[in-house]
Amino acid sequence: MKAERPKHKLPFNNKTLWIMAVIGLVIFLYVQVFPLTSTDGLQQEPPGKIISKDKAIQAADQFAQTTLGLDHIDTGVKPLVTYQSNSEFYGYLSKKNLLSTYNNKYEKRFPYDTYRVSFSNPASFIKQLDVDIHMTTGDVVGFEAVQLYSRKDREVMLDQNRAVALQTLQQLEGNLSLTDKQNKAIPFLEALGYRAQELDLVSGQNDLGLTYRVNKYTIGDSHAELRFQFEYGQVSSLESAFSVPQSHVDYVNKQTRLANWLYFGGYTLLSFVLGILAIIYSARTRPYASFGRGIFLTILYFAVNIFSVFNLMPVLQSQNMSKGTFTILLVVQFLFTLMVTASIYFSLVGGDGLWRKQGINMWMRANEPGYGSHVLNSMIRGYAWALILLGAQSIIFVLLEGTIHSWSTTDATQSTYNMVYPWLFPLVAWTAGIGEEAVYRLFGIPMLKKIFRSTWIASLISSLIWAFGHTLYPIYPVFSRPIELAFIGLLFSFIFLRSGYITVLFAHVIFDSVLMGLSLMIMGDIGNILIGVVYILLPAAVGSLIYVFKRRKPGSPALVLED
Fold first, then answer.
1. Which DSSP state fits 321?
2. Quick check: 532 and 518 in contact, CB under 8 A?
3. Which has the least CB within 10 A, 1, 173, 191, 509?
4. pTM of the model
5. pLDDT score recorded for residue 403
6. What does the pLDDT look like over 247-303, one tens digit per residue?
């Protein structure tokens, strides 16, 4: 049976679609874009005020010389500079709607976002020196000179066996008295601009380290603290941070456990099952599908994902893993990406086969008449649908915030500030569009429909599986994201069922390109802004080039705007 491509009402002369697109754009700008110039968080600062990483290195080097007494640090290797964020504290402020107050009163002295400059072996007795730099003022706000144990090492030791760890760490401190610790902390307090009358001593004689509380620096149930650690009788670290209420920490930990269950049980496991079924049905629908289809898309998906791992190399390097552990991690990531790529390939083949077996052409082939016009129209329609999706997402955000009081926090591991080439980050939008629409729409809907006998139920279940894959994002309560993306997924399903795979691919890519391009723009400078615009326009260029290329082939039909 010859597969027929469904007819669609598209794109320029569909007034309803474009009216909805304009409304979606206005809502998106009002809810998500305009607030970036005045809302809370790092992006609140004028972009031009963010210092460069080179200036952060200079500030850290000067601090090491003048305050730590180290000679000019020149290890032959450029220091690693990473963006760090106090996610727990930022989340507490976000949940309690205290960000604006905090930024106005305390952020200059106690930033939750910093550059961390890491020097390896800056001296014979120091394994690593980390200096935390305020991202806009360039001031030093903390440091850690690791001789034996880092702060993370100490936390792990105390969790495993507190009694033994206390004894070991007290001996490591050099059995300093409380007065000794206070005297040794004075030069560092002065270097950071603190006076004795500002501080209240919190630590007791037998406590590890030394903690001061800063007078009148209180917000909600949180208090500003200066925390010192000691090794071999000397100050080894200073951390400037607000305390986080234990109730908030417990809440986040509970939510994180739930997110893990939803991710691994609701997303990973069920996506694996879909992957196995895709292999089976690729074989069973062999007369209707082609194993030559989707090869370019899967290669593109694999290449961009592998590059994305290396683009986040600063984050991996900041974990201070051994070379062996680091190598194993990269190998595991490579194999995982390869497995996911294979799943996407078979979803493309099997999904196409399932639809064509029913006589429906949901993914037009390049050698079919009118392919160039179809791609161009799909791209144009994709922009309209992407704007509608952005508006719908904005409305969902407002409703979730007003009903279940959803809130979010920072994630330094995904920040463009931690990428080797942040300007390439929006390429990930293409992997999302290619892979997710192949697995959860092109293959997922017909496969689940065979089981549940309902297109609606199949669309809902595939959307939920896809939504559960986003529960590890720092958005709370964790079911906020599944609720949002279940609706977005149903809209993607509607677009797919109405207009086919190429249209929903473009809609998804444009949707993500706008959001990721925006993340570049808020980094500031004209270069990032222009690159963000380029990525938003890139799908238009791709669709137009495919149309032009196909038009040049002999016998290709003239452009027809579908309606």
1. -
2. yes
3. 1
4. 0.89
5. 95
6. 999 999 999 999 999 999 999 999 999 999 999 999 999 888 889 889 999 999 999
The span from the CA of 347 to the CA of 466, in Å, is: 14
Burial class (CB in 10 A: 0-12, 13-18, 19+), 74: exposed
Query: Does residue 76 contact residue 193 with C-beta atoms inside 8 Å?
Result: no
Max CA pair span of the chain: 90
Residue 426 CA to residue 417 CA, distance in Å, equals: 14
pLDDT at residue 136 above 60? yes
Pairing, β 140-146 against β 126-134: antiparallel
| Distance separating alpha carbons of residues 281 and 341, to the nearest angstrom | 17
**In a 3-state reduction of DSSP, which class is residue 476?**
strand
Contacts of 158 (CB under 8 A, 6+ apart): 165, 166
Taking CA atoms, 473 is separated from 316, 401, 470, in Å, by 18, 16, 6
Amino acid at 404: I
Question: Which amino acid, residue 512?
Answer: D
Angstrom distance (rounded) from CA 61 to CA 78: 12
User: What percent of the chain is predicted at pLDDT more than 90?
Assistant: 67
Torsion of CA 269, 275, 280, 283, to 10 degrees: 180
HEC string of 97-146 equals CCHHHHHHHCCCCCCCEEEEEEEEEEECCEEEEEEEEECCCCCEEEEEEE
> Over the stretch 336-364, which tens digit does the pLDDT of each residue have?
999 999 999 999 999 999 999 999 999 99
Task: Give the strand order in the sheet containing 140-146.
Answer: 80-85, 113-123, 126-134, 140-146, 234-242, 222-231, 210-219, 199-201
Residue type for 394, please?
S
Using the predicted structure, report yes or no on whether residue 6 has a pLDDT greater than 60.
no
pLDDT at 76 over 80: no
439's CB contacts (< 8 A; 6+ apart) are: 271, 274, 275, 278, 343, 344, 347, 466
Query: What pLDDT, on a 0 to 100 scale, did the predictor assign at position 126?
Result: 83
The answer to whether the beta carbons of residues 394 and 32 sit under 8 Å apart is yes
* Lookup: tokens for 364: 């037009």
